[in-house]
Amino acid sequence: MGRLIVVSNRVSPPRDAGGGSQGGLAMALAAALREHSGVWFGWSGRTTEAYTGQVGVQRVGGVTVATLDLEDQDVQEYYNGYANKTLWPLFHHRIDLTAYERAYGEGYARVNARFAETVLPLIEPGDFVWVHDYHLIPLAQELRRRGVTNRIGFFLHIPWPARHMLTTLPRHAQLVEALFDYDLAGFQSEDSLEAFCDYVRHETPDGRVDGGRLSAFGRNLDVGAFPIGMDVAEFTAALEGATAREELERMQASLVGRQMIIGVDRLDYSKGLEERFLAYEQFLIDNPDQQEKVFLLQIATPSREDVEAYQEIRGRLDGVSGRINGAFATVDWVPIRYVNRSYRRDQLAGIYRAAKVGLVTPLRDGMNLVAKEYVAAQDPADPGVLILSRFAGAAEQMGEALIVNPFSREDVSDAIARGLAMPLNERRRRWEVLMEGLKATDVSAWRDRFVSALMAPEARPAP
Ligand code: ADQ
User: Fold this and answer.
1) Phi, then psi, of 185 in degrees rounded to 5
2) Does 365 qualify as catalytic in the annotation?
3) Best mutation site among 369, 372, 398, 446 for ligand 1 pocket (most ligand atoms within 8 Å of CB)
């Protein structure tokens, strides 16, 4: 059996075998790489004045990691540009924020070619290549041009956009055609898979959809929904550790008899934070008896700060949270605790557990692992309630959450009221179903499903 070569924009192998406070995705991929004695390849995160093409190889936590430095122009055009100012907003249906600049497209193509050139010597006959996310859609095409015939799979962590959104992108057909150089393309949800099939059916001259096998541009592509899971075992262990327990006690002491609603997100316009604050304000207006009895803790860690849209949303959130706090706060109660720092996973576990309601209301999200982590962190004897946007991929799997329309303040306000008042037996019944689902579809199951579909396509069960 060949080795597994994982390629992603950034590499984040666990620093030690246990993984410390790192995320489940890094842990899951590292475990697969150890099992298949593979290599994880990606950008080092460093820039050099001029591109060198040199690859740094290291062993980290039992995994071979190979990294490439990029030059400043690459980072501007490929990473900040095409990836984060073009594809990210477009795939999250924000064409108002999408930059349609040729230079970005050229930088994207150039960096994908550079990735291909540098990873090429690492690929041996029989190896399997697994490419991650929107940064690297054309990578297989670049590898094929260089003679690679190995099986190559692609997994998209973000949603695939609706056809009419995608067609606003100049050269959209090129982007989709590039996907047909993979052997397998995986999506987070049935919704994303369906949107991709819809494009192939209607926008390609020879497109055909036959179950999980598509054909277009004279080639075939296997596709499937592979909803990513969380590392339930790692998270449960973290929850039992001293840090999580201390954090839980600290949070409980700070409640002073109030109920906490929690939001945890990267500070990103796709996460619906402004709409969430306004919906919570609506809840305070609709339920005056609840004022001073609840508060919202919103943890939002700044990200992509070089991109203007992120600076702008940060400014707006400062404004909205400040206005709501100014309007409703009393001498000993602040309605929104808005925190811009990041927390370790074991701290987060304790914080989630102290919250009566988990408020996860992205406007559009590939999956959303915070929804899953909130559920996994709950006390089985007295679990909290998850409120989840219908536009998160997670909603397809988590029907026992209170599913809401994040664009409707009233809808979210009603759900908050319902969640806070939900009787224990209903909370337990819903939580048990959700938790069973998390365990059955955890990150190892996701990885194994994808890797086996890539390595042994004939063994793949019919969809
Ligand atoms: P993200 O958009 O980053 O990921 P999400 O899945 O919600 O979104 O979070 C990923 C991880 O980051 C979670 O483990 C979470 O705990 C952590 N995290 C988020 N905010 C944090 C904070 N403020 N402090 C500390 N940790 C925080 C993309 C897609 C998602 C998809 C994932 C995985 O956008 O839809 O679920 O990839 O495929």
Assistant:
1) -125, 125
2) yes
3) 369
| C-alpha dist (Å) from residue 351 to 132, 135, 423 | 30, 32, 22
Looking at ligand 1, which residue's alpha carbon is closest to its atom 15? 370
CATH 3.30.70.20 holds for 240-440: no
240-440 matches 4-229+444-454 in CATH topology: yes
Q: How far is the CA of 131 from the centre of ligand 1 (A)?
A: 19
Tens-place pLDDT, residues 329-374:
999 999 999 999 999 999 999 999 999 999 999 999 999 999 999 9
CB atoms within 10 A of CB 210: 8
Burial status of residue 218 (CB atoms within 10 A of its CB: 0-12, 13-18, 19 or more): exposed
Give the separation between CA 365 and CA 393, rounded to whole angstroms.
Answer: 6
Measure the CA–CA gap between 365 and 157, rounded to whole angstroms.
Answer: 9
Domain boundaries, the chain: 4-229+444-454, 240-440
Residue 377 · residue 406 · CB < 8 Å: no
Residues 233-254 as b/e (b if ≥16 CB within 10 A, e otherwise) read ebbeebbeeebbeebbeebeee
Question: What is the topology classification, in CATH, of domain 4-229+444-454?
Answer: Rossmann fold (3.40.50)
Contacts of 147 (CB under 8 A, 6+ apart): none
Out of 74, 181, 222, 365, the active site residue is: 365
Q: Which long-range contacts (CB under 8 A, 24 or more apart) does 9-12 make?
A: 9/42, 9/43, 9/79, 9/83, 9/132, 9/133, 9/135, 9/136, 10/42, 10/43, 10/45, 11/40, 11/41, 11/42, 11/43, 11/44, 11/65, 11/67
What value does the CA radius of gyration of the chain take, rounded to a whole number of Å?
Answer: 22
Q: How far is CA 358 from CA 231, 280, 352, 353, in A?
A: 19, 13, 8, 9
Active site residue 36: no
Q: Whose CA is nearest to atom 9 of ligand 1?
A: 369
Average pLDDT, 10 consecutive residues per value, the chain (463 residues): 92 57 69 86 94 92 91 97 98 98 98 98 96 97 98 97 98 98 98 98 96 96 97 93 96 96 97 98 98 98 95 98 98 98 93 98 97 98 98 98 98 98 98 98 94 82 48
Residue pointed to by tokens 């924020």:
97
Q: Which residues contact 399 (CB under 8 A, 6 or more apart)?
A: none
Question: Which among 406, 405, 390 is positioned nearest to 191, based on CA atoms?
Answer: 390
Beta pairing partners, 130? 6, 153
The verdict on the CB of residue 365 being under 6 Å from ligand 1 is yes
